[in-house]
Specification:
Layout: H1 7-22, H2 25-31, H3 36-59, H4 63-68, H5 73-94, H6 97-104, H7 107-119, H8 125-142, H9 151-157, H10 159-173, H11 183-196, H12 205-228, H13 235-241, H14 244-257, H15 263-292, H16 298-307
Helix pairs in contact: 1-12, 3-11, 3-12, 5-9, 5-10, 5-11, 6-8, 7-10, 7-13, 8-15, 10-13, 14-15
């Protein structure tokens, strides 16, 4: 069944699964009492250990070569990954989550522009339309919390869509390359400033348990899947799926805290789901129609390219 799915559908499912695992993150950030540098230190340490062991188990002695095969992504993606993590944690602590999410949701637009300007990645009109609809839906969902919190948090949050877009766009430009191997480098880049700021402190037991749960279970699986998504999608499309975090995060707060979302949140969530599902169905029908008319199956061609060994 998996092999029969269109390439883009695989990318949406992989990235979407990662976003679902990442969605409790904002709730955990808000719910812990430790300083930002302490939070980031433990997050980077635990996440880096797990992702480093996964990369070593997969590639063994070939790991350095797998990192070199990532090309420019081996530099830019770790920097962007660390920047988005620092920006997210700091912004959520400084301002309302709604402010952060509205700004973060600009990532697909930024990724689309970066892909076009830097790598010549042209998006279809359908994709631009879906991006605009999803950004609108995410904005409606977060509108209830807009205007609360520190203006400094808004400024810090501006780094989030830019760094997410850089990571996704540069990773997607390395066609057929596994960029998950450079995630441990991103954790190292994240860890060093936390060390310099004195983040190597033992949190209270309750916060430590939450950090262990996220750092050892949820986050490694989430980031591994999200970093895999750009192998099948453009940077803008991979960033687009990240908007699901707004929808799932709102539902988690509703379930966990009992905070009923405003009516606009339901409208925005429905708009996001309708746009993503509608686009996915159109892609599936379009590909099946072309193959039925005798055109070569682009999925089979791309799969053969991915399996072709490179020097």
């Amino acid at each position: 069944m998996w092999q029969g799915l269109p390439r883009r559908a695989r990318g949406y499912l992989i990235t979407g699964a990662g976003v679902l695992l990442l969605s409790p993150d904002a709730l955990f950030v808000k719910d812990t009492q430790v300083e930002v540098e302490v939070f980031v230190f433990w997050r980077a340490l635990l996440l880096g250990l797990v992702l480093g062991m996964v990369a070593l188990a997969r590639y063994g002695r070939g790991l350095p070569g797998a990192v070199r095969a990532c090309g420019p992504a081996a530099v830019w993606c770790p920097l962007a990954f660390a920047g988005s993590a620092w920006g997210f944690v700091a912004a959520v602590r400084l301002t309302a989550a709604g402010n952060v999410l509205v700004i973060q949701n600009l990532a697909p637009l930024v990724a689309g522009l970066l892909g076009l300007l830097l790598f010549g990645q042209r998006l279809r009109v359908q994709t631009w339309l879906v991006i605009l609809l999803c950004v609108l839906g995410a904005g409606l969902m977060a509108a209830g919390e807009m205007g609360q919190g520190s203006p400094l948090g808004m400024v810090v949050a501006l780094a989030i869509p830019l760094t997410i877009a850089v990571n996704m766009t540069v990773a997607s430009a390395q066609r057929g390359v596994d960029t998950t191997v450079i995630l441990p480098l991103g954790c190292l880049v994240m860890l060093l400033p936390a060390l310099a700021l004195g983040g190597m402190q033992l949190p209270p037991m309750q916060d430590l348990l939450r950090l262990l749960l996220m750092g050892l279970v949820f986050l490694p699986a989430a980031y591994y899947l999200i970093q895999t998504g750009p192998r099948y999608l453009s940077g803008a499309e991979a960033s687009l799926v990240m908007l699901l975090e707004t929808l799932v995060g709102t539902l988690l707060v509703w379930w966990w805290v009992g905070e009923v979302p405003p009516p606009l949140a339901f409208v925005g969530g429905g708009l996001i789901l309708a746009a993503l599902l509608g686009s996915g169905l159109l892609d599936l029908l379009r590909q099946r129609r072309k193959v039925a008319d005798g055109a070569p199956d682009p999925q089979q061609i791309l799969d053969m390219v991915d399996r072709t060994p490179t020097d």
